[in-house]
Specification:
The protein is of the alpha+beta class. It has one domain: Response regulator (Rossmann fold, 3-Layer(aba) Sandwich). Helices cover 34% and strands 14% of the residues. The strands form 2 sheets. Strands 1-2 form a two-stranded parallel sheet. It starts with a helix and ends in a 12-residue tail after the last strand. 11% of the residues are buried.
């Protein structure tokens, strides 16, 4: 991993210190955010609500459960493979694909202290 990524991630979180809810894109970043908040004695969800946009099998180990969005990446991957094949043959491909997603509520969202 690039040595500048982790410090940049932490620097961005310091800028968001007053945030009351965060949507984190990937499970590793979600866990990094959770650790960052815990080190500053910020409770999830008491001080900050967190949602991850991806499911991870690691979430099964977490109590309370991690609030996340579950979606099937296979249709997107098939679409990308088809798009790459078209582009490699000089064809224009501006088609779109829809991905069905479901919100899975968990224990990382809720009212924050002081009603901020």
């Amino acid at each position: 991993m690039n040595q500048t990524v982790v410090p940049a991630f932490c620097a961005k979180f310091r800028q968001l210190f007053l945030a009351i809810s965060l949507i984190i894109q990937e499970a590793p970043l979600f866990f990094a955010a959770l650790q960052f908040l815990a080190q500053r004695r910020l409770a999830t969800p008491g001080d900050v609500s967190l949602v991850c946009t991806d499911h991870s099998p690691d979430f099964e180990w977490c109590q309370p459960a991690i609030s996340h969005i579950r979606w099937d990446s296979r249709p997107l991957i098939r679409h990308l493979v088809k798009w790459a094949a078209h582009v490699s043959h000089g064809k224009v491909d501006v088609s779109q694909t829809k991905t069905h997603a479901a919100f899975v509520p968990g224990g990382t969202i809720g009212p924050v202290a002081g009603g901020r």
